[in-house]
């Protein structure tokens, strides 16, 4: 006769062997959207919002461990972006998971709207499997349709489509928050949204702004501005702006259907909805796992000391960001670990600014065999460990430098690296005084004196 303990183990083993409920890990009350292929095409691929999608199997231990953090991320991103999941153990979803290139569980994919509606950019999420890591990565991908306006550009911006409604956020911050970016998405094509900093004195006085942040609605057609006095939450802010224009339905692929009809006027059968859905999935799936190097060109390398000195260490040199690479035991060996992550993150940041046509100071990689590398690191008091990567920003003309903080296990992911670079661009954060002997000066005056004496 079986002992009670043995019987319990036998029952547990039997239950574990049973098929998992088709509903998967997430219940209907979960903040995580549960999708199949049709839902993905409708709610994710054709949305103006960014999303993150988990492809999982209910029996996967790592998927079960991820669930609490993923649901927490979904709650934190409510109204800002979409957090969804696809159960690849469901037979109906297996072809779709195959199309999306899923080879292991859980696989998380970031989905970002592109200029072509219905054809988003899909890339693997490779950050930490924590709620904060997921939220930071998704927030970073929220499209920004908010115009940065200064005193000198205000009248020009206001004169554009004068009869159309506009909205302005007056703020003390130099960055564009996720909340105001989502308002830009919500009213894309109907209300132009701008952001003005408190230091733009003329604009602040023009609208009588005394508190920051303040949201102002310009209804258009010569109507007086209206200042919002409610909570700084998406729901009431959308309701406030809705008095001038209706928010977009979600998803809102505004121009897709007219274009499709114009290009294919004869194709109007009812079954087209299904075929269009399948076609969208084919177009939106990545042919291979998307990584930064495939879309972002590598940053420039300063291989010799003369190049480093000329670019960043003269008295007239502006801001440079330098990635000091670790010593490689063998030549032409591909970098791994933190060094690889750092270069990929810097490359993606540079690529973003190039695409947006926004000005960014130069970013360079410095190989360990550059003769000036060790000298410069020593002069700045950086670690001389030949196996680590270091990122610093310095400005020889203004005499300051700043180190990227990678202590306490902090990573070199693009979200954190970009936040560090943005802080430098906006003049935020502390800086160190650059040692005087770091700057390379040509001793031309001494040469002239010697020549005169001769």
What does this entry look like structurally?
With about 450 residues, the protein is of the alpha/beta class. It is built from 17 helices and 16 strands. The protein has a six-stranded mixed beta sheet, with helices on both faces. The chain has a five-stranded mixed beta sheet with strand order 1-3-2-4-5, with helices on both faces. Strands 6-8-7-9-10 form a five-stranded mixed beta sheet, with helices on one face. Helix 3 (about 60-75) packs across helix 5. The N and C termini lie far apart (about 110 Å).
User: What's the rounded overall pLDDT mean?
Assistant: 81
Give the N-terminus to C-terminus distance in angstroms.
Answer: 112 Å
Pick out the low-confidence regions. 1-22, 252-294, 444-454
Q: Oligomer, anyone?
A: single chain
Number of strands: 16
- Compute the number of helices: 17
The proportion of strand residues reads 15-25%
Kindly state the percentage of residues in helix. 25-40%
Tell me the structural class.
alpha/beta
Signal peptide: 1-22
Main location: endoplasmic reticulum
Protein name: protein disulfide-isomerase
Domain Thioredoxin: 6-144
Name its key features:
disordered C terminus, Thioredoxin_domain, 6-stranded mixed β-sheet, alpha/beta, disulfide bond, signal, flat, 454 residues, 38% helix
């Amino acid at each position: 006769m079986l002992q009670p303990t043995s019987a319990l183990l036998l029952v547990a083993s039997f239950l574990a062997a049973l098929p998992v409920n088709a509903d998967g890990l997430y219940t209907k009350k979960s903040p995580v959207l549960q999708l199949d292929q049709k839902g993905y095409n409708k709610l994710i691929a054709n949305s103006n919002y960014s999303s993150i999608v988990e492809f999982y199997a209910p029996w996967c231990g790592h998927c079960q461990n991820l669930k609490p953090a993923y649901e927490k991320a979904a709650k934190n991103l409510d109204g800002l972006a979409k957090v969804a999941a696809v159960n690849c153990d469901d037979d109906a979803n297996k072809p779709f998971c195959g199309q999306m290139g899923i080879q292991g569980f859980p696989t998380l994919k970031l989905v970002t709207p592109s200029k072509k509606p219905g054809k988003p950019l899909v890339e693997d999420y490779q950050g930490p499997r924590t709620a904060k890591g997921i939220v930071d990565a998704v927030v970073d991908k929220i499209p920004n349709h908010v115009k940065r306006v200064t005193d000198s550009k205000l009248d020009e911006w206001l004169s554009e489509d004068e009869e159309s409604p506009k909205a302005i956020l007056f703020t003390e911050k130099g960055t564009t928050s996720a909340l105001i970016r989502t308002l830009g998405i919500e009213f894309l094509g109907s209300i132009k949204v701008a952001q003005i900093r408190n230091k733009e004195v003329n604009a602040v006085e023009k609208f009588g702004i005394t508190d920051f942040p303040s949201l102002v609605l310009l209804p258009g057609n010569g109507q007086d501005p209206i200042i919002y006095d409610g909570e700084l939450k998406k729901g009431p802010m959308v309701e406030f702006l809705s008095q001038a224009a209706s928010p977009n339905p979600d998803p809102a692929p505004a121009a897709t259907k007219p274009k499709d009809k114009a290009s294919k006027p004869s194709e109007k059968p009812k079954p087209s909805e299904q075929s269009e859905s399948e076609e969208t999935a084919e177009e939106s799936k990545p042919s291979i796992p998307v990584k930064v190097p495939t879309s972002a060109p590598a940053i420039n390398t300063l291989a010799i000391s003369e190049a480093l000195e000329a670019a960043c260490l003269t008295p007239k040199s502006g801001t440079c960001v330098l990635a000091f690479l670790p010593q490689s035991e063998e030549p032409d060996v591909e970098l791994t670990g933190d060094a690889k992550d750092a270069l990929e993150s810097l490359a993606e940041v540079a690529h973003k600014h190039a695409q947006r046509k926004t000005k960014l100071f130069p970013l360079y990689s410095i190989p360990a065999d550059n003769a000036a590398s060790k000298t410069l690191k020593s002069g700045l008091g950086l670690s001389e460990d030949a196996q680590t990567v270091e990122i610093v920003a310095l400005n020889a003309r203004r005499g300051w430098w700043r180190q990227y903080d990678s202590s306490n296990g902090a990573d070199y992911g693009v979200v954190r690296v970009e936040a560090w670079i943005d802080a430098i661009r906006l003049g935020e954060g502390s800086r160190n005084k650059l040692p005087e002997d770091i700057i390379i000066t040509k001793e031309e005056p001494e040469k002239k004196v010697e020549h005169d004496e001769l």
